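Notebook entry, cofactor series.
This is the third protein in the set we're modelling with a bound small molecule. For this one the ligand is flavin-adenine dinucleotide. I'm keeping the input format identical across the series so the outputs can be compared line by line later. Sequence and SMILES below, as received.
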Amino acid sequence: GLYGQSDDVVLLDTSTVHAHLLNSNSAWFVELYASWCGHCINFAPTWKALAQDIKDWRPAVYLAAMDCAEPENVQTCSGLGVTGFPTVQYYKAFAQSTREGRRILAPHGDVQDNVRILRHMIINYLEKNEDTWPSACPPLEPASATEVQEFFGNNIEQYLALIFEDNESYLGREVTMDMLQYENIVVRRVLGSNQELVRQYQVKSLPSLYVLSRNGSFSNILLSRNERSLYTSFLQTLPGVVQGLFTIIGPPNTDMNPEQLSDMWKHADKNKVYMADLESGLHYSLRVEVSKFSTLAGDKLTALRKYVTVLAKFFPARPYLKNLLQSLDNWLRSRANTQISYSDFRNMVDNNEQVPDAVLTSDVTWVGCQGSKSWLRGFPCSVWTLFHVLTVQAAYNDQYQLKETYPLEVLDALRGYVQHFFGCAECAVHFENMAKETMTLVSSMNEAILWLWSRHNQVNYRLAGAPSEDPQFPKRQWPSFDMCPTCRNMVRRRSTWIEGSILDFLKAHFCLQNIATDYLVPEVELLERQRRARRQRRKKRETSKERNTKEEKDTLENNRVEIPTHGLESHRPSNIQKPSIIWMSSRINDQYEDIVDLDSFVEQQYESKTLKDLTRRRKHKTGRRETLVFTMEEDQQLDLDYAVAQESLQKKGMDSRYLIGVLLEEVGKDGDTPARRRWFRLLGVGFSHLDISLCVILYFLSIMCLFGMYMYFSMKMRCRKGRAGFPKL
Ligand SMILES: Cc1cc2nc3c(=O)[nH]c(=O)nc-3n(C[C@H](O)[C@H](O)[C@H](O)COP(=O)(O)OP(=O)(O)OC[C@H]3O[C@@H](n4cnc5c(N)ncnc54)[C@H](O)[C@@H]3O)c2cc1C
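Returned structure with ligand:
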């Protein structure tokens, strides 16, 4: 990623992001980035400088970052609503859901300005959420005269620092935040409009700093400049002021050392194109970039369809990949004008439909696109390379009239892909601006190749020297002289491109014969891996199905566990049965989803008639969550028994977090619960007295009915026989 141990930025990933951002007593500002994205690389110095600048604001405010380019973080980032990079989000303290994240527009100035703007934004956001104030955050509102006068009576601190300032000034609030980890001192801002305090301390100019001591003395502190850093360092060095002990969440060490990098370095020839780069980029674009959207419809779907069509037509893929692209293209065409879900699309990419001999690697191996740092080059480099390969292949197809195409087909598709799916949001805007300007003027396949080459060089020119530039692969006008000596012409000591030579060079460089297959996993092996993964998935599904069925069976038959009743006897009549636990559902899946409301749950339970009904209803409501229900009698206090139930569970070593309610249940005189008092059991099903009585009555009624029918028909038969015996007149 772009951040390391020395950066004061908390590094988040899928396993930690919810635990940190939700229900935290700190406010969180998170940058969601893709390590390959040039604008994220440019923004990283701002985020690092800000983290360093406000590191003393922890634990009230944390700065964090998550690399959404990491495959295991992709789904989490899309769950956080990230569609472009970098995205900065604010989570107020005690946020309950990721939906509460607020997007912040990242500033674009120089690092110093950005840091100042973001610092002010943080203060504004904190002040907006007064209802969820971070626990460690000091008050930021201006102090009143009464508060100041009563301060030493109500507090134990040695000093009260007052910063007199204008309403618009952030100095007082920033110094207050800077001092939050320091003990024995409180900092408050006072507005210049507070006449009473201004008069009392004879304030002559704004801003100014006054330090009041517990012994009643006060002094106006005159510093060389009215700067936050001078105020802060003066206050931190006052006698008796010490830094308190706070537990600060720190970043783990994820930096790769140079030996690790050199071990992994792959030899690459700059005169070649590598299929490993192209396939890795394809995997990333279809499985990661597109996955940011859970549903695909309208312009997005059209863009995706065009992109896949162009890939299926022109990508010089290995045979099994060709099959996969073909089937994906057919599938998308058959769904024109509808809406598709990403999971259905992904099913096709993963070939879960089992098209014979079709596979796309899920390995990421950068060879020609490898960078000297893990976050440099990689994916965007592969995107450019893929684009060039496609324009050249389309031209070959056209030249030999292999496939019907039109000059803008490839460029249109690439433009749509960049506009709708390319994660680097600002790159997409720049590319779209270039496309709008001149792309429509392209009128032949060769022009399409040259258009893309010259726009790529424009981007190279703009990015030369930018932080996203890999120092080992400086951005120069391409191809370099040594790669193509005939491509340039020197006119009055200025070199100009020779278009014919350039075109020949590009067609030779991006042709099939120049694509090296080094570092590729053989397709047969990829196919075998795919089969293995499919078998494992099927096995997993079957096991979980079996487990669920078994658990459901156990639940119905064996759902009561006796637990001790310490402390209950004193509150209960002696004839009442001990409380019991009903163990209802199966797996604990996500600790952060659905918190069941106890009151509504108890109401539901109270209304239900039979235990079986209850079991069915709770299973339905709680989904795959493991749930405990503590049964009790109608005359017991709910809150009392809830606590008792929790305590009893804890004593039994059970996890009482999942105790979600107390079940009000009718209890018989003998103390048995209805489930136990079944009078008669058959095939594991219990029948009560009432059930049996109803059965007997029904049985009796049906016998009576049959008897009645028998009497009626026998009478009728007798009548007929009698009539037949009369003599004819
Ligand atoms: C559409 C698009 C827009 C982008 N916009 C931005 C942006 O606005 N800001 C930003 O910071 N980053 C942007 N990027 C990323 C940036 O252009 C680079 O891809 C990234 O910095 C990696 O650079 P690189 O050194 O690997 O070479 P890249 O520029 O990615 O080039 C990849 C390879 O293509 C070859 N190549 C280089 N130039 C040419 C050329 N003119 N014609 C043909 N082949 C060439 C070289 O072999 C090179 O190694 C964009 C990427 C894409 C795909």
